Amino acid sequence: MIVVGGGAAGFTAALAARECGASVVLLEKGEQVGGTTRKAGVWIWVPNNPFLRGGGVEDPKRPALQYMARLARPHVYDPASPTCGLPLEEYRLIETFYDEAWHAVELLTRMGALQPHHRPDIPDYYAELPEDERPYGRVIMPQPRSRPTGGTGLEFVEALEGAARACGIPIHTSCRALKLIEEDGRVVGVAADERGRERTFRARGGVVFASGGFTHNRELMLQSFAFPLLHGAAAPSNEGDFVSIASRVGARLANMGCAWMAPIQLEQALTPEQARSNASITEIHGDSAIIVNRDGRRVVNEKAMYNDLTQAFFAWDGVYGGYPNARLFLIYDDATARLCGDDATGNPILPVDAEAPHILSAPTFSDLAAALDRRLQALGAAAAGVRLAPDFAVTLERTVERFNEYALAGADPEFHRGEKAIERFFSGPTRPGNDRNPTMHPFEPAGPYHAMILAPGTLDTKGGPMIDAGARIVGSDGHAIPGLFGAGNCVASPSGQAYWAGGATVGLAITYGRIAGLGAASLAGDH
Amino acid sequence: MIVVGGGAAGFTAALAARECGASVVLLEKGEQVGGTTRKAGVWIWVPNNPFLRGGGVEDPKRPALQYMARLARPHVYDPASPTCGLPLEEYRLIETFYDEAWHAVELLTRMGALQPHHRPDIPDYYAELPEDERPYGRVIMPQPRSRPTGGTGLEFVEALEGAARACGIPIHTSCRALKLIEEDGRVVGVAADERGRERTFRARGGVVFASGGFTHNRELMLQSFAFPLLHGAAAPSNEGDFVSIASRVGARLANMGCAWMAPIQLEQALTPEQARSNASITEIHGDSAIIVNRDGRRVVNEKAMYNDLTQAFFAWDGVYGGYPNARLFLIYDDATARLCGDDATGNPILPVDAEAPHILSAPTFSDLAAALDRRLQALGAAAAGVRLAPDFAVTLERTVERFNEYALAGADPEFHRGEKAIERFFSGPTRPGNDRNPTMHPFEPAGPYHAMILAPGTLDTKGGPMIDAGARIVGSDGHAIPGLFGAGNCVASPSGQAYWAGGATVGLAITYGRIAGLGAASLAGDH
Fold first, then answer.
1. Across the interface, do B476 and A419 touch by the CB < 8 Å criterion?
2. Helical spans, DSSP H, in A149-278
3. Exposure string (b/e) for B486-519, b if CB count within 10 Å is 16 or more?
4. Could you tell me if A5 and A209 are in contact, meaning their C-beta atoms sit under 8 angstroms apart?
5. Which helix (H) or strand (E) holds B457?
6. Is residue B22 helix, strand or coil?
7. For chain A, which terminal residue's Cβ has fewer other Cβ atoms within 10 angstroms, N or C?
8. From residue A243, how far is each of A463, A472, A493 by CA, in Å?
9. Per residue in A195-238, pLDDT tens?
10. If phi over 0 gives left and psi between -120 and 50 gives alpha, with beta otherwise, what is residue A232?
11. What ipTM was assigned to the predicted interfaces of this complex?
């Protein structure tokens, strides 16, 4: 069978099929394997994992599914309904995830691609919801080689690739799938461009797509979201190839308006080389750091987890005739830069001596405002029409004064900063003794102060052809398309609009990657 | 040629083709023709119309396109770019709309389906934007028979149908298109279900789909929007048939996350018979009427035009873990009910003696709160998890006090109510002498007060197969699918996420309906 895409989902599919004895070939569009997994923190969210069970703590099924359903489709969630209010096929997708996620971890462990490292200390992103009966302990990480907090994406990709090569899976890099080959109404192969040469790969078993989302397809992004979302962390090869390839065989698309979202450092994301590195923000460290809009006002709980934080950019203003928050501004003091500056993935605050032209610094808020507005002007259309209000600096002074009062009181009555477990987990270092609410500390009374421009972006998109619980691609007539499977960000995510927890991405990718690989392998056996 | 759908777009396509001499058949899924047009107010937004030119007022092209582009794709709008920042094919769609809209009005006039009635007094929905050089006078209506303010949808549909029958176009009602017939890579017909019997219609020319959006397809709605949108005013037959029919021939979908949005009266929309009538709200009349959330606080400019107003329901709250504003509450005093109660399309305030179980009335805010919360509880899952905060009534009292102060001052510093021309246009009757800001008046100091539950809904959706400027359906390979055309709400709207003005819906429908009809007719001539 054929796997298209060499990230977490694709490698897991390939290993699952190979373990069953199927002959497997893996096609990777990029020059190197890894896809978005290469850049990921590699948390793996595994509900109902045996570390929980082994610790005498069960992860009962119904509340776990209620937690997932509530966040996946909030406005139709119905705790009294057998399917929690979801369409039956969607309910089956989350049920299967609950049932099968751990089997994917076991598979990767058997194949030598993963040494599971349980993290009982990591909370779900909505740990406070009544449905979340197991708010801690669903995250598994690869056993770290280089970092004490968990393996890096690069290490995980190397382990996956090593396991694949060890069991004889040929890997074709710089090999882009172009279209599907059908015979008798069944997908039997892939036509691909391998280093400029068109080639045909034929499969006795099925074809598994695990080729990533459409974060770097500008038109598809523009035409899929009704809010101002830009590209982000996903691998540059994630151009939505599978959306058009699968559309041509009649696939049914879903969740095209959903994404795994995160704010991005706008100017980092605009430079070509940085678009390929990680401009996405997943944890804003620092207790004297706030986000303000063009008026100089706070508009969001700055410690909200990244997917929620991104929603703050989407506020529509009919008088303004657009999105006044399409660009926001991270402002912090020098103590925060000294305390929290690092190059950890996802924290935008860099060491004070870092070369970082996208970070503006000035001795006063007034000077900082002038510099920010000049930068917005220089950005042209990339500023999305946002310029600072004339009294931005004055308002910012007042905003900081009020924030300082909140910090001293340890409570943020406006945005509830620091009230959730995940916010405290992601908040980074704080000043010694700041234990009332460690996510907030008054700004230093004197500068320098620092600022950067933020925009709403994706880690990757969530829309694409729908799958059923067997990871089969569903056609627009509601029936599975014979021979075609999918997993990871190239298919409509079983999570709907939810970001349940850190690692929900990779957790779903390997769970449905394994199921897709097993399905394709079983087809090979039929022949 | 074949037209699928008997609303404004479909009839215009049929009449355009017939005028060219083509033989035309029209298939309508409903028991009667008319679709959503039957329920529409029938405003027709026509940029660059000769009433403007004749009055010595030009409607210059570039600013008109800038206005449309800015609102269609706000975050990529670039006034300095030749395409205003839009992808070229999208720019061509709005340019063609500007160039051709009037020709559609002329066609319908020639065919006896429309007597144009110019309304120089109606403002665009964003008349205050600098790009809007012609903020008044782009709306055309059918010359009214029964109402002095413009023809009704029913009258317009009767005129369209009459014109079609007069020129010999056969109309098949209760005839649902099932799939396309292709020969040699070209669409040559439609298989349909006509009153339970499968029939085939073949076309020498092309096939034009004008079959409406997917407002009444629950799964497609759920899987297309990343926010809590319910069904609304569209014809009950608008179940997104064309999305799956066109997907099976490889169409490229776009704007699946966009809709023509309007709040709905939730309980009206939930009853089967009312789902078919108009629960959608397009003008909230009354100067002592406010909208509050579960906390009893205002969250929106209540006079904002309906599409903007709907955005207020979408505020995400990560601490709450959902959409706390998914249900909002319209509260008004008895003077407003007496002054503004009518059964005009789109105004939710009914006469005081109307039979209306969805309207709750009580002598005090406290009693009203208790009744509202009981109703929310009784609604179960339809309340989307929303219940009133324990101190709702107290907060509502304070909210009304503050609103009263704003009303006396004539200015709403929080939400800018009544500042835009369109808000004043839609505001309904006001108390005599209330001329400082006629959209606001203090509440009466004593009850009864009235309330109803609101939810976010659609007039219809905007997503579907993409068209090019010739109204040809575009395939996922970027090329037009030979023989297949589309117009109206069944295709990806050229307006993107914008609601430029009242009548943008019908204006686009007839403009691209005509172009589709001409295109299909010209194919017939080739044979």
1. no
2. 153-166, 218-224, 241-247, 266-270, 272-276
3. bbbbbbbbbbbbbbbbbbbbbbbbbbbbbbbbbb
4. yes
5. strand B449-461
6. coil
7. C
8. 9, 15, 13
9. 999 999 999 889 999 999 999 999 999 999 989 999 888 899 99
10. beta
11. 0.94
Region for A225 from its dihedrals, namely left if φ exceeds 0, alpha if ψ lies in -120 to 50, beta otherwise: beta
Rounded to whole angstroms, the Cα distance separating A486 from A471 reads 6
Interval A170-174 mean pLDDT: 98
8 Å CB contact of B316 and A322? no
* Nearest CA-CA partner of B467 in B129, B83, B53, B90: B90
Range with the poorest average pLDDT among A54-63, A282-291, B179-188, B234-243:
A54-63
| Mean predicted lDDT score pLDDT of chain A | 94
Hey, which CATH number is domain B263-458, 3.90.700.10, 3.40.1390.30, 3.30.70.120, 3.40.50.970? 3.90.700.10
Please count the residues of chain A. Answer: 527
Query: CB distance from A299 to chain B under 8 Å?
Result: no
Nearest CB neighbour to B255, from listed A223, A227, A305: A223
Class of domain B2-214+462-526: alpha beta
Question: Hey, where are the domains in chain B?
Answer: 2-214+462-526, 263-458
Least Cα separation, residue B403 to chain A (angstroms): 19
Give residue-wise pLDDT tens across range A93-148: 999 999 999 999 999 999 999 999 999 999 999 999 999 999 999 999 998 776 55
In angstroms, rounded to a whole number, what is the distance separating the alpha carbons of residues B176 and A285? 58
Tokens of B128: 């205050």
Report the pLDDT value the prediction gives residue A527, as an integer from 0 to 100. 43
Contact: B316, A308; criterion CB under 8 Å: yes
| A88 close to B (CB below 8 A) | no
pLDDT in the model for residue B527: 43
| Residues of chain B contacting A420 with CB distance shorter than 8 Å | 318-319
CB-based burial label for A352 (10 Å; 0-12, 13-18, 19+) = middle
- Alpha-carbon distance of B458 to A417, in angstroms, equals 34
- Which residues of chain B lie closer than 8 angstroms to A228, CB-CB? 74-75
Q: Which residue from A258, A381, A477 is facing B226, i.e. has the nearest CB?
A: A258
* Closest-CA residue to B458 (of B306, B325, B329): B306
**By 3-state DSSP, what share of chain A in percent is helix, strand and coil, each rounded to 5?**
35, 20, 45
CB pairs under 8 A between A and B: 175
Interface of A with B in 167-206 (CB under 8 A): none
pLDDT at B148: 57
Chain A residues with CB inside 8 Å of B381's CB?
76-78, 80-81, 85
Q: For the residues B427-431, what does the mean pLDDT come to?
A: 91
